Amino acid sequence: MSLLLAFDDELTLARPLAAALGWPLAVVERHVFPDGESRLRLPAALPPRVALLRGLQRPNERLAELMLVAGGARELGATELTLVAPYLGYMRQDIAFTPGEVVSQRHLGRALAAWFDAVITVDPHLHRVASMAEVVPGRRGVALGAAPLLGRLAAERVPGALLVGPDAESEQWVTVAAEAAGLEHAVCLKQRHGDRDVAVALPAADVAGRAVVLLDDVASTGRTLQAATRGLLERGAASVDVAVTHALFVGDALAELRTAGVRHVWSSDCIAHESNAVSVVPLLAAALRDGAGWAGWGQAGWGQVSQDLTPSRHDPL
Ligand code: R5P
C-alpha cells in the first residue's frame, strides 16, 4: 500500500499525480499560529510507502514544515519516504563564490538526505555537482527531464525554431530539448553583475529572420531571458518565445519579458503558473510507479527508469 501526501497548495499537481498512480491522496492539514509556527496533522496511520509532494520554491517558508512532516510521517508508519520536489530550490549555490559563503546546495542536500530515503526532482540546476546522488549523499536522487517536453512543444508551436540557451549552464537542457525535437540549437554566454543586472553575449549562429525559442531550466527575475531577448531581436530574430521548466517569474519578471519583446511564454507545471503548457505528471508518476526511490530497488530498475523517461540526468547510487 502506498500513499501520496501533499500540502493543500499543491493540489493542482497532486490530484492528477495521485490519479495517474492510482494511489490515495492525503492532504497535510495545517494551522499557522499567530506567531508563525505551524501545527501539522497527517493521517493517523501511514502505509510503509509514502511520497510527499512538496516543491521547494520559496524554500525558506517551506523547509521547517518539510522537516516536521518528514519526522511525523516516520513516527506514523512510513518506512520508505520519498520527497517529490518538482522544483528543488537552493541548487544554484553549489560552491562558495566568495570566501565564507555557505554552500547552500550541499547543506540542503544533507538535510534532505537525513529526512528522506529518496528525492525525485525535475531539471535540477546541477552544474559543478554532476548528479542528484551527490546532492543527497547516501540516498537515492532522481533527476527527471522536462526539457525534451519543452523542446517538442517548441517544435509543435514554432516549426523550424532555433532553440537558444541563454547561458552556458543551459546547454545541458537545450541539447536534449533540441535532440528530442529535431531542432537546431545554440547557446549564449552570460555575465551576472547583480540580481537584476545581467549581460548576455549571443552565439555566433545567424539569427536574422529566425524564429527563436529561448529555453532554460528556471526563470526567476526574468533578467537572463530579457537580456537574451533584446540581443536576439537587435540581431534580427523574427520572433522570440520562451520555454522554461520552472516558472518562478518573481515580481515584474513577466512584464519585463513582454516589454523586451517576448511573444509567448511556456513552462512545465513543476510550479503552477499561468504559463504552464506541458505536464510533468506522467514523468513523476512513472518514476514513482516503477519504484524509483523505494528501498530494494536495484540498479537495473534505475536503468529502466532512465530509458523510459529520458531524464536529463540519471543518478543510480
Ligand atoms: C542560472 O544559470 C539559471 O539557469 C537561470 O538562467 C537563472 O537562474 C535565471 O535567473 P533570472 O531569471 O533571475 O535571470
Hetero compounds:
ribose-5-phosphate
Structural class: alpha/beta
Terminal Cα span? 25 Å
How many DSSP E strands?
A: 15
Q: Strand percentage, roughly? A: 25-35%
Uncertain spans, ≥5 residues at pLDDT below 50? 292-317
Q: Helix and strand string, N-terminal first?
A: EHEEEHEHEHEHEHEEEEHEHEEHH
Indicate the radius of gyration in whole angstroms.
Answer: 20 Å
Quaternary structure of the protein: single chain
Q: Residue share in helices?
A: 25-40%
Major sheet: arrangement of strands: 3-2-1-4-5-6-7
Describe the biggest sheet?
7 strands, mixed
Return the average pLDDT rounded to an integer.
92
Sum up the overall morphology in one term. Answer: globular
- Give the number of helices: 10
